[in-house]
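Our preliminary data section would be incomplete without showing what the modeling component actually yields. Below, a chain of 294 amino acids is followed by its predicted structure, encoded as tokens that our downstream tools consume directly.
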Amino acid sequence: MLLVTGITGHSGTYFLKELINKKYRGKIRCVVRKTSDVSLIDNSGLSIEKVTGDITDEAFLDRCMKDVDTIVHIVNIRYTLSIIKAAIKNDVGRAICVHTTGIYSKFKLASQEYKNINTELEMLVKTANIKITILQPTMIYGDLCDHNMSKFIKMIDYLRLFPVINDGKCLIQPVNARDLGRAYYQVLMMPIDKAKPIYNLSGERPISMLEAFNLISKNLGKRTIFISLPLWFGLLLARILKITTFGNINYIERVQRMAENRCFPNDEAKADFGYNTETFASGIAREVKEYLNK
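Predicted structure:
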């Protein structure tokens, strides 16, 4: 049986659509929230069992693992250790865990937490009979429910003068959630002994922040003037905002990351399971169109 967490989330929904399109024949157990939209699950035509509960609850996880041989864990890196501990306890043979390239950041406060999770995970599975594959997406976009490009779309729509850090030269490599859903399925279908421990799942190619913003502006039909700010000045404004809002608004880390390259090679994913992605220009045009229609 296949156990999936996060199947009603952004990239998880596209993984479910891939399972449907490929007519997956195995039994599936999905962990969902009480508030989750499960209409796609219910109308999938697949053999899916829904279970509702708290994945931080050991007893609940134990029940989830009954008869499971493979896990696709999408929901959040912070739940990985709980999931894997329960998997080991219940002799699950394989787990595919979706983490993040945020682990490589020089600035991101959470990156140390991510590193700690990976270190503990390595220790956990060292003597266990379970095969772990970690998938690390870059910045995820593709629909208005994403927490990345959808925010920039809204800001560029409303602001005629738009600030960018260091001429917007830093490189990003956004990946569409549609491509991630397909990648999760491709890894699931790989022979267990062929999969590497870690794969980066990045977009088609690196682009500058300014190039991305210009594409958004063009698809919005706007004439946006981008004003370059030096990193130090952007950080000064972010710190002033944090102080004046008593810490309620803290953009310091976001400003720091606006000056950090966030592009990562995906050659191993291409070679091992045929990973492929659409262009950012195509994906962002679709997302902007969705925004304008709403």
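Residues 81 and 121 are 6 Å apart (CA to CA). The mean pLDDT is 93. Preliminary results of this kind motivate Aim 1 of the renewal.
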